[in-house]
């Protein structure tokens, strides 16, 4: 009787193993169906909960944070003493500053992290507390020199490259060179050399300082743990900044006009201060929404209420819109359901209780900065009208000088040739027009590419499935980038280190985290090296030679079909056909020679 077994040439033990595997698989499916845990039984919510339970909490270790946090106790006590007892005499303040500077200088021989932490905490206050040590030497310059010194010491001590060079750093480097070249472009215009050298040299240095700081951050942040700690240092700096502005906010409350009620903050300009508060608070918001199920995260609620009040007191329309967009993105990356719930609750609260929305905010959107809060709205306030005129002037400059622009600070020197009416303001009130009109469209494209890459990094890290803190860093990075980008629409914000320092530091943190995650993934799953057609032919020739030797030894010639099947399919079709034809013809000739030899022997 003919066998009905479809695996007639298979080994019996193999068949038994396959049957046992099929039976075991069926048993597992049956048990899952019986317990209600099948594919259909698992809801999306259950899968998310299981994934979150398997993720690491991810907070940095205390041993790494301890040196910096212990150092921060000393300036904290000094600030508390000044708040309680009033202003201290200058010799005492300079003595405390000298002690802190000596501590940081000595720590630079061991690590550059404390220098970077002091940099991040000091830069938002650098306009208010200049720390003039000597002509041309202030607190920012000293920290820059100290950061470069510490990075060189680290390079020689650990015998590693000076900076990490993650993906995206080349774009920043090219943007730095191209935008800095605008100092030479402005010299081609009459009076440009004198204007830059005698009036705007400090502004040019403030522009270049951004990239020096980015370079220092790359020398400091080399691993994921350091990047996490730096993110926490920025969160601490954002909290201190808001608390610093509370006394000024209380002092200005109740004034008759918006201009008198605006909080300037340590930036001494309400729009700059409002934009900085908006984008620097979003990493803390990201930590809150990521760890929202942890009761300790709700301890940040008073801080969020104070921040909202301080932000409203700046009366900065650009900061309002930027903060709204950033908060929307943070909720979106947390989850669409989370965004829908909170957006619905907020809309219902405003519709039912319209008094919750401050009248001052409505007045700021309707009137000028010097109008009374309760005054009637105008059609277009003077601030908006002047910005539109300046934007048009910037557009005309871009059309006439699309590649190199008019040079650094050339806008204020040449704006009178492009405006219909005389405007006293010298700033275009738009970062993108500021860059394009003075540094050219290529520089603007690079700046937009940096913003897009920062958003992409945040979006990618927000999907991390192994570390909750990395996910929070991603949510904060994406939302802060959106907020930062929108705030640049309403003013020339990203022009100095005081405003953009946290953006560059956060970008470096995301770059290093992404680079290390990729290295870890590649180390776990090494890619197989691809072979080209020539290498494949060489391997085929080697295999064919070895096969011919074996055939000669055993006096057994394989069939043409077997040799044809052994030809690699990686070869191009034409090359494979030629090799198969040559192989078949050679085997045919060998077979014919053996047949003739056997016939001759007979």
Tell me what the structure shows.
The chain is mainly alpha-helical and 602 residues long. It has two domains: 62-518, no CATH class; 536-542 and 553-601, no CATH class. 70% of the residues lie in helices and 0% in strands. It has 26 helices and no strands. Helix 11 crosses helix 13 (270-290). It is globular and about 120 Å long.
Which structural class best describes the helix and strand composition? mainly alpha
Helicity range = 55-70%
Which segments are poorly predicted (pLDDT under 50) over 5 or more consecutive residues?
A: 1-30, 33-38, 369-379, 528-532, 548-557, 567-572
Order of helices and strands: HHHHHHHHHHHHHHHHHHHHHHHHHH
Question: How many domains make up the coordinates?
Answer: 2
The profile of the biggest β sheet is: none
Inertia-based shape: globular
Q: Whole-number average pLDDT?
A: 78
Cα gyration radius (Å): 34 Å
Give the termini separation.
Answer: 41 Å
State the helix count. 26
- Number of separate strands: 0
**Proportion of residues in extended strands:** under 5%
